[in-house]
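Entry — protein

Goal — fold tokens:
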Amino acid sequence: MSSSQNSRDAFRSLNLLNLFLLTVHSGLLIFFAVIGITLMAVVNIFSVTFYALGFLILMKGKSTLYIYATLTEIMAHMFLAVICTGWDAGFQLYFIGCIAIVFYADYFSFRMGNQHIKGGSISVVSCGLYLVSLVVTKTAGSLYQMGSGLDYVGQVLNSIVVFTFVTLFLRSQTKLSSYYEEELGRQATHDKLTDMVNRHYLVEQLEGIYTEKKIDSYWIAILDIDNFKGINDRYGHLCGDFVLKTVAGMVKKICGDRTVCRWGGEEFVIVGSDGRLDEKGRRPESVILDNVRRSIAIKDFVYDENTTVNLTVTIGVARYQDGQTVDEWVNVADSRLYRGKQTGKNKVVESDEIPG
């Protein structure tokens, strides 16, 4: 995934977090106003205003500032809420939820290109405020008496909010972890330029094929773009990349469901398991690979309005022979590719005979 996509996803996630907190504090503002705890109603007016402005802060790219300000607001707000309403109303649960917010926000802030925030230190502060509020309310009582009925309502509502957020947070992190594990796995096995599987992937596949009982039906071909260095030297590496991507697309399209790999540089490897001859007695790989060669030879590779490149490819082919190791099998195809290069290029070499 590109860094720009990472930033967009992180920006979207922090905005969702801000929307969640804005909704929670709007509800708390109404709750405190209704039950007559004026101090907390006023505090929530400031909180709602802050989260309304939070979208603008994030839009300006101030994610680190936003995160620190948000965590400060949450901890200060909830400390006051516990002091005002007492322990039984359940506002101390937000200190636990705050730890989830710390690492949630830190993760997405880092993905936006900012430094990690001090999650461990902030978690310690949150724990400290939790314990201080416990001691204060249990020794001195609360500033307001809500009554057991309202305490019960507060405990239920606060529990629902905190558990909902922590659940959503963990679910989000699990999905992201799974996604990025898959993405990293794909990056490890695919070539970035051509989006083909890479050499690492193909070697593992060949080793897997080697253990199959029908390996004798498999063939391997190594394709090399002729005089590719001259294309880079004459037209530049960006044009060279364009040629590689275009050739890769053509080879994948013509070869269908056969495995096509970027082996390295301007070399591609194709692996198939076609066993039957066609109506003219030709092997399937002969038809496919010659079609690849001819299609590339007649194509105009139009890079821009001033640059059109024509090129050819040479291909060495080897069917698996009993007793060969994977390396020996690949080396046969490679030696035939080399022989084709030495005898005129723009050809498919399928045997050890000197090609015409």
